[in-house]
Write a structure and sequence with these properties.
Layout: H1 41-58, E1 65-70, H2 72-84, E2 90-94, H3 97-109, E3 115-119, E4 136-140, E5 164-167, E6 184-188, E7 199-204, H4 206-214, E8 228-229, E9 232-233, H5 248-263, H6 266-287, E10 291-293, E11 307-312, H7 315-318, H8 322-338, E12 355-358, H9 365-383
Parallel strand pairs: 2-3, 2-4, 4-5, 5-6
Antiparallel strand pairs: 1-7, 6-7, 8-9, 10-11, 11-12
């Protein structure tokens, strides 16, 4: 295959931290409140603005509260687990790395006894028909490391007794989410809007708030996870007073991303951009018999449109052992990186040998289109050394 000549104008396809918005420059952050206390009026107003703009852009229900948390999505999700669980049994779903991490928290750290675990391999999706909604239910909306997402929220009943706690970090701003089905939603700045890392967000329904105000877990809660105290919501967290010191440069960057999304059409624009990129890769995979999605369910409803994950399925490749397959994928990715065409598209280390191309709203579909012939070229270059 002839080597392509046209290259993406942005080769950043990492699944986190993700590509900055088109046109981003460091000069955009010149008005950051650096050197100021995050408790100052100016800084606090910007933190509150991130909360308000996020809620507005997402069109979250008016009675949901939103706060900024330390520790990225992980810190936000952990705060929900440590603060809300223990009141009733727990059902937890996992089909990729982060969901499996939440199992470890619930089983080994919090040591809850009434637990139903639905843990399946990468590429599979659990049987959601078995979930007991009398319990609290924990799940990721989008399998960040497997490329498998929940098809919709129809499986979640409106009259559930327990809370639904959703890790939405690789889905929110990129996938339509029925918020009323999720009592807790968590995400980070570094994903779909391409913000800087280390800061997370949490949104909570009135039902989740009611749990905080009427139940106290039996275990001590570290300060960094504490969103209630003596059955009272710590209101400041949801008004711009963060638990620990945030980076005001990151705050400015988050506001820049939110404003960019607003100026370009809001949530609809973000969803359409991601789906257009996904459709481009979907069509490409349909035309090439040497590559397929990592997901065992090829129904589009189950395929992630952000962390788009696919693998080589050619006979010559599948005859190799796991170590050799990983080496082959690594060589392909290195070729693309050396050509300054695509950075960081090797699949997650714990996932099967695969590629993962981020296609959130900050990634222009035209760059996805330009990338795909390069992947074919690199594949054939590496293949020639094995076949």
């Amino acid at each position: 295959m002839e080597k392509p000549t046209n290259k993406p104008n942005n080769p950043n396809f990492s699944s986190g931290p993700c590509a900055k918005r088109p046109g981003w420059k460091i000069e955009n952050l010149i008005n950051a409140n650096t050197g100021r206390s995050h408790r100052s009026g100016e800084a606090k107003s910007k933190l509150k603005l991130v909360i308000d703009k996020s809620k507005e852009l997402l069109k979250l229900p008016s009675d949901y509260i939103v706060g900024i948390m330390p520790g990225s999505d992980t810190g936000a999700l952990e705060s929900a687990l440590w603060s809300l669980l223990g009141h009733r049994g727990v059902d937890i779903l996992a089909w990729e790395n982060f969901g499996k991490d939440w199992i470890q928290d619930v089983v080994k750290q919090l040591q809850l006894s009434k637990i139903n675990v639905y843990d399946v391999n990468y590429g599979d999706f659990p049987d959601i028909g078995k979930v007991n909604f009398q319990n609290d239910v924990i799940f990721t909306w989008n399998g960040t490391t497997s490329g498998v997402k929940v098809p919709n929220a129809e499986w979640i009943p409106d009259d559930r007794e327990g809370l639904t706690i959703c890790d939405a970090t690789s889905a929110i701003f990129a996938m339509p989410i029925d918020y009323q089905k999720c009592d807790v939603l968590t995400w980070s700045w570094q994903k779909v809007l391409g913000g800087e890392a280390a800061h997370g967000m949490i949104a909570m329904s009135p039902k989740a708030i009611n749990r905080l105000e009427n139940y106290t877990p039996k275990w001590p809660i570290p300060k960094i996870f504490r969103i209630a105290n003596n059955k009272k919501i710590i209101k400041g967290i949801f008004e711009g007073s963060t638990i620990n010191t945030p980076s005001m440069i990151c705050v400015e960057d988050a506001l820049d991303g939110l404003k960019w999304a607003e100026d370009n059409g809001g949530l609809r624009f973000l969803l359409e951009t991601s789906m257009n990129s996904f459709q481009t890769i979907y069509n490409w995979i349909e035309k090439n018999d040497w590559v397929t999605f990592l997901s065992n369910n090829k129904n589009k409803e189950y395929l992630s449109n952000t962390g788009i994950t696919f693998k080589i399925c050619a006979d010559w490749f599948e005859s190799k052992n796991d170590d050799d397959q990983r080496l082959i994928v690594k060589k392909i990715c290195k070729l693309l990186s050396d050509e300054n065409v695509a950075y960081d598209i090797n699949g997650y280390a714990k996932a099967p040998p695969s590629f993962r191309v981020w296609a959130g709203g900050t990634v222009e579909t035209v760059n996805i289109k330009i990338l795909l012939p390069w992947i074919e070229w690199a594949y054939n270059e590496v293949k020639s050394n094995y076949v």
